[in-house]
Amino acid sequence: MQKYDVAIIGSGSAAFAAALKASEYGAKVLLTEFDEVGGTCVNRGCIPTKNLIHASVIYKNAKKGFPGVKADVSLDFASLIAQKDELVAELRKEKYIDVAESYDNINLVQGRANFVSPTEIKVNGEIYRAEKFIIATGTRPAIPPIRGLENVGYLTSRTVLQLEELPESLIIIGGGYIALEIGQLFSRFGSDVTILERSERILSRAEPVISEHLQKYMEEDGMKIYTSATISEVRKTGDGKEVVVKIGGETRKLKAEHILVATGRKPNTENLGLEKVGVKTDKRGFIVVDDELRASESVWAAGDVIGEPMATPIAAKEGIVAAENAVADKHRTMDYRAIPRAIFTHPEVGIVGLTEEEAEKSGFTCSCKTLLIKDVPKARAIREERGIIKMVVEANTKRILGVHMLGERAADVIHEAALAIKHRMTIDDIIDLVHVYPTMSEAIKMVAQMFYKDVTKLSCCAE
Fold first, then answer.
1. 3-state class (DSSP) for residue 372
2. Does one domain contain both 41 and 53?
3. Beta bridge partners of 247
4. pLDDT tens-digit profile of 406-444?
5. Do residues 77 and 164 lie in contact, with contact meaning Cβ atoms separated by under 8 Å?
6. Is the pLDDT of residue 462 over 90?
């Protein structure tokens, strides 16, 4: 029987961050993985999707051209998928397998793990003993109980990126970030894409103004988006698949070559033997943890397996916190207040802090301002004028509570707002900071200035 200070179930972002942090404290660490080493992010999430999204932007922009610039462009979809697979394999090895092998006190074992006692797990028939455990098994696509769906067949965020031929048409069930990112990249390549969202708007938890503008832009680019859509059945047709859906009180039959299901995530918590170690799950199967990410006396959990918010950097941070608490008794907690989020549509979405509704529900007296991205000089210069930015501020103190941006490079720009929220900065602090001109980051400063004046009537760089 092999003995470890801490055994980690999983090998994704949370698991590896936990393993590396635990190793820094001198702990002997066991990492286990039942699927592909590296988890969702490197294999079927962040890396492959952003690789293909970037390619789709290059392709679309080349076809669109620029005033005075024209280019001939062609698409070899099979080669595009092949280079994506090659990149994923390289990073899986370099950033996960090779990293684990470079540490003398980390042992990576591939196989399905389950608890057999409060101090033991079994992997590939072998028993491993540890003093502490961290569960970081992640999630997988959740499949809604739609009549006919299982029989007809469907794609998920995992399998859709394995297609070697560009689909002529694609119906996507869901209107969250996964649906929008994947839907838009296929639309840019030329697929006829339809999104069906059961809520009243896409990105239902985002600021409404962000959802509204993004839907408008996507529809302008040729995508079809239906909200408040209720699907009753999926059928097989002679040359594809058919979705029976009620939209605005009218029942419609929509056809496509493929159906992609993007309706949320389901935790990988089955058959772990959680009852052997006193770990509880909620009604959806996510592991219940306290503020220190502790799930039971000797078990901690981190990453998507504990539920929202789900994102790779959040999972990694949770892995670090869990490891420090497990092996060093640090009693650390997570601060989710200033964690930025991004959606890599075009334009991009960058979000940090509270929405106006969330702020008001939390008891704040709010003041909010919005600015169209077309009024940011850099946007005009590069002819990427679509978008909007909204800032939520505590009225009395002028402290920034939230920033919500839809626009070019929003995923990069949002970090300035995250830093402002983390350090409880005010709009005056942002205005006082000299920004490089012209940059998209000026959008943060300009929307802060909106609380005092109409920035559309200022000269460049004026305050």
1. strand
2. yes
3. 229, 250
4. 999 999 999 999 999 999 999 999 999 999 999 999 999
5. yes
6. no
Report the candidate in 271, 260, 332 with the shortest Cα–Cα distance to residue 300: 332
Same domain, 65 and 194: no
State residue 196 phi and psi, 5-degree precision. -115, 115
- Specify the long-range contacts of residues 150-156, CB closer than 8 Å, at least 24 apart: 151/236, 152/234, 152/235, 152/236, 152/241, 152/259, 153/241, 153/259, 154/234, 154/258, 154/259, 154/260, 154/261, 155/258, 155/259, 155/260, 155/261, 156/260, 156/261, 156/262
Q: Of 283, 304, 328, which closes a domain?
A: 328
Q: Is 35 helix (H, G, I), strand (E, B) or coil?
A: coil
Q: What is the mean pLDDT of the chain?
A: 95
Q: From the CA atom positions of the chain, what is the Rg in Å?
A: 24
Cis? peptide before 347, omega within 30° of 0:
yes
406 near 440, Cβ under 8 Å?
A: no
Is 106 part of any domain?
yes
Residue 257 · residue 241 · CB < 8 Å: yes
Please state, as a whole number, how many other Cβ atoms lie within 10 Å of the Cβ of residue 30: 24
Single pTM value for the model: 0.93
Unique residue bearing structure tokens 């509270």:
354
Residue 234's beta-bridge partner residues? 243
| 184 lies in some domain | yes
Q: Does residue 167 share a domain with residue 74?
A: no
Residue 250: beta bridge partners? 247
Residues in the chain: 463
Count CA atoms closer than 13 A to 327's CA, side-chain side.
25
pLDDT at position 238: 83
Spatial CB neighbours of 305, under 8 Å, sequence gap ≥ 6: 10, 14, 135, 136, 137, 138, 139, 267, 268, 269, 286, 287
In tens, the pLDDT along 299-328 reads: 999 999 999 988 899 999 999 999 999 999
Contact present, 283 and 268 (Cβ < 8 Å) = no
Q: How far, in Å, are 15, 83, 103 from residue 97 at the CA level?
A: 13, 20, 11
Contacts 24+ apart (CB under 8 A), 76-80: 77/164, 77/165, 77/166, 77/189, 78/164, 78/165, 80/52, 80/55
Domain that holds residue 359: 341-454
Q: What is the pLDDT of residue 2?
A: 85
Q: Is the omega angle on the peptide bond into residue 340 within 30 degrees of 0, that is, cis?
A: no
Question: Domain end: 301, 328, 355, which one?
Answer: 328
pLDDT score of 460: 79
